Amino acid sequence: MEPQDHLLAEARRYGYVEGDQVWLRSFMDLPARRVGQVKESEEASLQYFAQRFESFRAKVEDLLAKIEESENKGSFLMKALHLKEQMASYDALGDFEALHHRLTEAEEGIKVTVARNREKNLNTKITLIQEAEALRDSIDWQTAGEKLQELRQAWIKTGPVEKHLTEELENRFREAVDQFFVRKKEFLADKKAMSNRVVDKYRDLIRKSEAIQNSEDYEETTRQLKQLQQDWKEVGGSLPRKQANELWTRFRAAHNHFFDRLKEHISTKRVDAKDGYMDDNLSRKRALVAEAEALLNQPMSAAVARAKELQAAWKKVGPVRGEESDRVWEQFIMACDKVFEMSALEHFIRKRQPNTPETGSPEDKINARVQALRDFIKYDKQEQEVLVENLGKLSDSPGNETFRNMLEGKIRGFERKIRTKTDLIELLRQRLPA
Questions:
Q1: DSSP letter string over 369-388?
Q2: The model's pTM
Q3: What is the spatial distance between Cα 254 and Cα 204, in angstroms, rounded to a whole number?
Q4: Closest Cα to residue 212, out of 253, 263, 254?
Q5: 24-46: per-residue pLDDT in tens?
Q6: Residue 203 lies in a domain
Q7: What's the rounded Cα separation, in Å, for the pair 348 and 369?
């Protein structure tokens, strides 16, 4: 078919002549409309308006090609919308509906791409904010400062997000960066005064501990000393190693003196009857529990050694009544487990940087330990799931009873490990600044 014949066929398919007027047939929700007037002849006029449609379609094809090739598709959205609007009044004969559908698809694609890019930019900016907020409280002034400058440059290079989120994100990022540099300035001006305040806090805790180390109110004093140990951990700050060790030695001596007296007090009580004997055993075990629970606030090397001594001492204490026996045993074994798990955690932390001292703020150190415990819990759960799966595959044959009991015991062991690590995470999180 000749090109002119094809144009004429297309013109008659989508339009018609009525009198001396050329009309475009209705399409989509648009009514038929007049697009021009017959001049030379009906065929010539139809071909003319079909040719105008081909010119219009070429514009659409050119735009669609540019959209396909461009990485910045969003810049073509308004052009696509403008061409769609033109269809309602453009004088030509052709398949406007097909072009409308193609432009609509392109428009939707552009919107999806823009939304995806803005979502990507949002994720990038949220990550930059989280990194900046993680550095906000750092005391590694040099490294953290350089990293924050890098984050600033990355922020500038990141594209836009949805308008209603822009101000909130900008404020969060700027506040995190600004707070770090304000703190750095204040730290450099206050360093000496800060050290003096830390020493004063430690000395106050030592004074309070020494004031009650000879108390006869064992239960209340145990509670007070445990609180003082917790307060000691929360002081924070940094001191020269020699000075810190001297303060800690005085503090620990007062606590050891009281707990030695507590053990002697319990061990010398006379047992006149079975109930008294049971009560005395319970008191002794509670004292061991109290001391075991207090070990988390001591250096780990000393705490582990002492926990093993307490376990040996526990075996020498007589029985306790039924339910109370299980309860106090659970408290004791959990306290010891926490010491051993904390010791293993500290060993893991040291092993990661064997030749350099640990750096970062107290909050950074706590967060590093919390993350490590979470990783350990994940591994424990994986091991436990394998054991549970093996147990499920085991038949009920009497010959498998011994193996079944062994598997069930290992599963309970992992439950205890997971519970212990979970408790340690909560304990560490309580030490974070408010």
A1: HHHHHHHHHHHHHHHHHHHH
A2: 0.39
A3: 13
A4: 254
A5: 999 998 999 999 999 889 999 99
A6: yes
A7: 9
